[in-house]
Design goal:
This protein is of the alpha/beta class and 621 residues long. The strands form two sheets. An eight-stranded parallel β-sheet has the order 10-9-8-15-14-13-12-11. It has a seven-stranded mixed β-sheet with strand order 1-7-5-6-4-2-3, covered by helices on one side.
Length: 621
């Protein structure tokens, strides 16, 4: 039955004659006592009761002639995560080789319940994933530190999407016991909170993999006097030598300093026991200053590439002390392909790339030829934007699935970064998050439009399909207003942040599209008001989408005025007064939305941009 919008789309689904009518009293018969499966069954039971009276789950056969949903273990199912579902006029039966497969079958049954209400079409589903490991990677270190309730909500949604790996990117937002200075300027996650998340993931057959920066991206720690002596190089020294400098604070650890190794050992000893996973992402990416500062002499002896490999081996050994095998981002080792085989035997390379044309095929071939297990790691394209970059995201997510399958990738990890303060709201990431889950499970059987419709029906609980289409469309504003594409970011984001007197991004804007885009955004706001009120679970998503539309609208109005310095004084004064009132409302609402999902730290970093705009308008007036 191809018109049931299932997410991810099943590998095979075929319609049969007849229908199954939900009975007034029904049973869910479950084989096994897997806690995760029982959790899913209880959720299904609740959904069925909301549709058709009384339901209960039992471990024995149902009473004679009773209507039932049977969940059975069946060794004949080949794939460890695969399952079949048969809906007949007299019963429903799901079979899987493992409790994990039955857990996924229940997710599909839950979606059928949501879509078909009291009458289910008779059909047969045979399903299994393309990638054995399908992950979502969420940045919590560039701005927002989510509340535990937010992360647990996200975990529930990932389970519904059949995601089985979850990572949080952590730099200094964990409460290290021996290193309180590290997180003094933030509100970190605690050991108790991480263990709570780990437990929730285990119940839902999700591997909660720890991820901790271990080389570069160390600036938030190295800026503190206690740790600054462990840095590879001072930014002032790099600038004086005419070398690349990404930060006003030191960026990477010095790999030849024994004290840096002691620090990493202590951080791992505190951090890793909070996770039951056998894997650990040590990151070690973008260490642009490796070998150019304090380790330069050693780099000249053995080469920067070998210096890097030796550091990876040290981190892998330190992780092994806690029973973990490592993952690492692949950007640096790609510069030294002759050394790929020298990575630790238990290391998995994470091949990341966020453009629609990223060479997943080429890089995957290199890792495969070296016998190295690797993931493909595309992204949601939400960072550096107000509403995401939908076209780029969907193309990037599909290309990663295609390239990964052709080259034998062992996993697919969809990344959701928070560069530049993590201004974008969580609702912006949900569509590409779900799209990535869909193509990681079954990359070739559903069109972009079909997946977007399924996202509306299942993730947004909107059977009209309009809410996900709306999210996709506002995520394409960047295409329609830009003269030339920007790397890894969107023009609307830069126009929001560009001071009034500067023109770098103003000159890239297509002024003749501003008015039509504002009208388009107005129609989207009207659509949101017309749609039925969402359930309590999704009300905040609606609010975030509404806010995102209005902040883009404000940015485009601001851009139009900036491009018209000769506008009539009276009309300009009226527009500036309207912008002042609007930015004040948006600023207040942004604070409320931030604090609904996140801890308090780093909000002021983004609020500063709202405040700056209000001051600019007041001066102009």
């Amino acid at each position: 039955m191809n018109n049931i919008p299932l997410l991810p789309p099943p590998r095979r689904i075929s319609r049969r004659p007849g229908q199954w009518e939900l009975p007034r009293v029904g049973f869910i018969c479950v084989e096994g006592r897997d806690p995760g499966l029982l959790l899913a069954v209880k959720s299904l039971e609740k959904s069925l009761q909301s549709r058709a009276g009384r339901w209960c789950w039992i471990e024995t056969a149902p009473p004679p002639k009773a209507q039932a949903i049977h969940l059975r273990l069946d060794a004949a199912i080949e794939h460890e995560q695969g399952y079949t579902i048969d809906i007949r006029p007299d019963r429903v039966e799901a079979r899987a080789k493992t409790p994990v497969g039955l857990f996924y079958a229940v997710q599909t049954l839950q979606q059928i319940t949501r879509s078909c209400r009291r009458s289910w079409p008779c059909l047969h589903i045979a399903d299994q994933p393309d990638f054995a490991r399908r992950g979502f990677y969420h940045d919590i270190s560039r701005g927002k530190v989510p509340k535990v309730q937010t992360i647990l909500w996200l975990v529930e949604k990932l389970a519904e999407l059949k995601i089985n790996e979850f990572q949080l990117y952590i730099e200094n937002v964990y409460a290290f016991k021996r290193h309180r200075e590290m997180y003094a300027d933030t509100t970190p996650l605690t050991a108790r909170e991480l263990k709570r998340i780990d437990k929730a993931c285990r119940l839902r057959h999700i591997d909660f993999v720890p991820s901790l920066t271990s080389l570069g991206h160390f600036e938030k720690i190295l800026r503190h006097p206690r740790y600054r002596p462990l840095a590879e190089a001072e930014p002032a020294d790099l600038k004086q030598r005419g070398l690349t400098c990404w930060s006003d604070d030191p960026w990477s650890l010095c790999v030849t300093d024994p004290r840096a190794k002691t620090l990493i050992t202590e951080m791992y000893a505190d951090f890793l026991p909070n996770f039951s996973s056998s894997q650990f992402n040590i990151c070690c990416d973008e260490a642009y200053d490796l070998g150019v500062g304090r380790s330069q002499a050693e780099a000249q002896k053995q080469g920067v590439g070998r210096l890097y490999v030796e550091w990876i081996k040290f981190c892998a050994d330190a992780a092994a002390e806690h029973g973990k095998r490592v993952q690492l981002w692949g950007d640096i080792i790609l510069k030294y392909p002759e050394l790929i085989r020298e990575l630790p035997a238990n290391a998995t390379v994470l091949e990341w790339g966020y453009g629609a044309q990223h060479p997943f095929l080429e890089h995957g071939k290199l890792f495969a030829s070296c016998g190295r297990p690797f993931y493909v790691c595309p992204g949601t394209s939400s960072w550096g934007s107000l509403a995401g970059r939908t076209a780029n995201a969907l193309a990037n997510l599909r290309a990663a699935a295609t390239g990964g399958l052709q080259r034998g990738a062992v996993g697919y990890l969809n990344t959701d970064w928070g560069d530049n303060g993590h201004q974008q709201l969580l609702a912006v990431s949900l569509l590409p998050m779900a799209f990535g889950a869909a193509v990681a499970w079954n990359h070739g059987l559903a069109s972009d439009a079909a997946i977007i419709d399924a996202v509306s029906a299942q993730l947004f609980a909107d059977s009209s399909g309009r809410i996900a289409q709306l999210a996709a469309d506002i995520g394409n504003v960047y295409q329609r207003i830009n003269r030339d594409p920007l790397p890894n970011s969107s023009l609307d984001f830069h126009l929001f942040r560009e001071p009034w007197a500067q023109t770098t991004y103003l000159e890239k804007a297509r002024q003749n599209r501003m008015a039509s885009e504002i009208a388009r955004l107005e129609r989207h706001l009207a659509t949101l008001k017309q749609l039925p009120s969402p359930n309590r679970d999704l009300a905040l998503v609606w609010q975030e989408l509404s806010f995102t539309i209005r902040v883009i609208r404000h940015t485009l109005r601001r851009t139009m005025l900036r491009a018209q310095p000769t506008a009539a004084p009276e009309s300009a004064r009226r527009e500036i007064a309207a912008l002042i009132a609007d930015i004040r409302r948006l600023r207040r609402e942004f604070k409320v939305l931030w604090r609904k999902r996140n801890k308090k730290s780093r909000w002021a970093d983004v609020d500063a941009h709202f405040k700056r705009m209000e001051l600019e308008y007041r001066r102009l007036r």
